[in-house]
Amino acid sequence: MATNFEELKKFMDETGLMYEANDELQAIAIGFSADPEERTYRNPESNEPVVEMNVRLVEDGEFVAVIAPQAWDLSACENRAAVCEAACRMAARLKLLRFDLDDEDCLQPNVELALEDAPMCSNQLHRAIRAVLMTVWEFDPVIRHAMETGVVDLSLAHRNRPQLPGDISRILELGDAAGGLDALEQLLGGDGAPPVQS
Question: Could you state, in order of their start, the residue ranges of all structural domains in the chain?
């Protein structure tokens, strides 16, 4: 087994984040709130500036999924094609991220980590959580605009970063000091590919 649920909870405890763990489902629920003056995102169910996120351990610890379930409700959206185009364009610019359209017509950004028999480190989990969270916060204006107008405009993305707790903030600070997260990744032995500009 590559990782286990106790290890995932330990990684979560390192961040200082509050979370709910369901041992039976091997799932962790987290909520991130933002200043409503700084962020356009609103949860479709509560209409609050809160991003709900789940971390799931599957395949006997060989696979970890980080997902923002039901981030955007497209069930009544008349411009679904534009939203899907926006999601594809964003995914092409972002590392790790993918988007799913679930059976209830909700667009869900997520990161899936196939560990197989390799051990997991806390930085992998923190980076996956950060990637999903920042995608929702930064690209919500792009998705909303596509939903309302049918026009894809990536220039509408937010570029200011909110304060994040614990190790996630430290990772961002290290990335900025190294010239961006892509530069930090290359210094730490990344794939050597040039950084993707977003």
Answer: 5-158
Residue 132 burial (10 A CB sphere; 0-12, 13-18, 19+):
buried
Classify the C-alpha dihedral 192-193-197-198 as positive or negative: negative
Per-residue pLDDT tens digits for 63-102? 999 999 989 999 999 999 999 999 999 999 998 899 999 9
pLDDT in tens, 31-72: 999 888 888 999 998 999 999 999 999 888 889 999 999 899
Contact 90, 48 (CB under 8 A): no
- Round to whole Å and give the CA distance between 144 and 150: 9
Tell me the two tokens of residue 160. 């200011």
Q: How many CB atoms lie within 10 A of CB 197?
A: 7
Query: Running DSSP on this structure, what letter comes out for residue 85?
Result: H
How far apart CA 1 and CA 103 sit, in angstroms, is: 31
Helix (H, G, I), strand (E, B) or coil at 48: coil
Question: 6 near 37, Cβ under 8 Å?
Answer: no
Distances (CA, A) of 26 to 67, 103, 120: 14, 22, 16
Domain covering 5-158 in this structure, CATH number? 3.30.1460.10
